[in-house]
Amino acid sequence: MPFVQGWLRKESLTVRIETRCACCSKPMSIDIDSRLNCQVHSSDAKPLIFIPDIDFATLSDPSIIEAF
Question: What is the domain extent for residue 42?
Answer without folding.
Answer: 2-67
